[in-house]
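Researcher: Structure for this, please.
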Amino acid sequence: MPRIRTENMKRSSPVVLVGLAAVAGAWLLFASEAGGQSISQPLVGAPVSPASSDALVDRAVTMAPAAVREAGGPVRQRGDLEATGPLGPVPDVGPPDPLVQNALAPAAGLSPAATIVRSIEGIPQQSGGIVPPDVTAAVGRDHYVEMVNEAIAIYSKTGTKLFGPVAIHTLWAGIGAPCGTSDAGDPIVRYDVLADRWMISQFELNERIQCIGVSKGPNPVTDGWHLYAFPTQTATGVKISADYPKISVWSDGYYMGTQRGFPNSGLDVWVFERDKMLQGLPARQIQFQVGAPSLFLLPSDLDGSPPPAGAPNVFARHVDGDLWGGQDRLELFEFKTNWNNPTGSTFQLVASLPTAPFSAVLCGNQFMGVCADQPGTAQKLETLPAWMMWRLQYRNFGTHQTLVTNHTVNTGGNHAGIRWYELRKQGTGAWSIFQQGTHAPDATHRFMGSIAMDEAGNIALGYTAASASVFPPSSRDTYSGRSSGCAFIGNYPQSRSRRSDYSFRPVGRLFLDGCGPQWIVHVLVFERVLSDNVSC
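Model: Predicted structure, token format:
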């Protein structure tokens, strides 16, 4: 949940930060239907040395508890996503979405929907959360780690709370300001299935720092952490607002996409030196600056088996042709990292895949799409149709590789639905769209989606649902092919348009979401969604 802060912050102790070295060469242009878009040469950061923390249970007495909000007290709110404009109204154009699913019942001959066998209450707003919560979590062998804006907690997979909630910055206490003294949020937590480790992150906006922690072992409570503070800046040292950071796990790095302001201020894509971070050694970063338009680029995130040796990380985005030129499509970029010769790393467009027609404009707005009704109030909710929703999940099945992702669309008449995709790559062939659909089976708006595939190929899609008669909690569907079932959680209307900037449903039988403003995270354990042999 990106935001802009105005207060000044002082560093209480020195922190080793990256100095980005300029690389000779002009900016490169690639031919894109969205217009000429610049991509810089790679910017290589000097190594950043980490701080080291002991077991969290040993440090708990010195750690700041998450801020407490008394029942009935004022709701703490964050500012909007960063935008540069002006963004004038855009007419609702085009015919109704041709892929709209028009029923909730499972299709004949396909597997039944999942059954919820356990519901666990996670971090409540009273324990440090704010609006929007920006819920994120990950599932490992024996734990799941949950973060919301300003708070982190760790649980066993049966739901026992093992640690927290505490303020996120307290994990960085040994590294000093700014990572160790303040919380700006937009948290991300990932389980690195290849290393059996954990990665957590949030950004710091005043000094423009990405705070990243990597656990020293598989137990996030007892094994301690390597804690990094990576500056985000240009080759000349100008600090970048690395807004809306989304970080993924890959075999050769932790990859990140960020934006500087929609639609005119551009983007950045990054990779952090995972091998060194797992060892607690000084680690570098490689960055590419991508010019406007600021159509967010989402990195692929690994579950299960590793990708083929040397496979680049894939970044993806959807492009509405009526807004940006050309046909409606998915654009895929490859980030090829070379840690032996970092200046030889590349980031380039490799595929433009035509999709079924869609509209990324809701209620005349191409960015926030403030369009979803809720009961008992005239305040509508933002549907954020401009960007793909976290995650772009990757799996390697041996015979083929898959990517699944989703974004919000206007299904017709300013009705929000979820367009979802499964992409496949056979052998050494190219990526292609294997299947796609739009989930909008009734008059309820569906948006803020998150999607994942298990090791058997079942797809689960979670999202927010809201209408004049349905409160804005989370809803979930499970797919085997296109079968689905639906359940709702919570009953809380909101007094502002922002419900969240993203949500996350991890594979591994645990899905979660936060409800606001009086929100609490619910963790749902599914009976049918299969686990893989490492993460469950």
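Researcher: Any notable elements?
Model: The first helix runs from residue 56 to 59. The domain at 41-67+99-526 is CATH 2.130.10.10 (Methylamine Dehydrogenase; Chain H).
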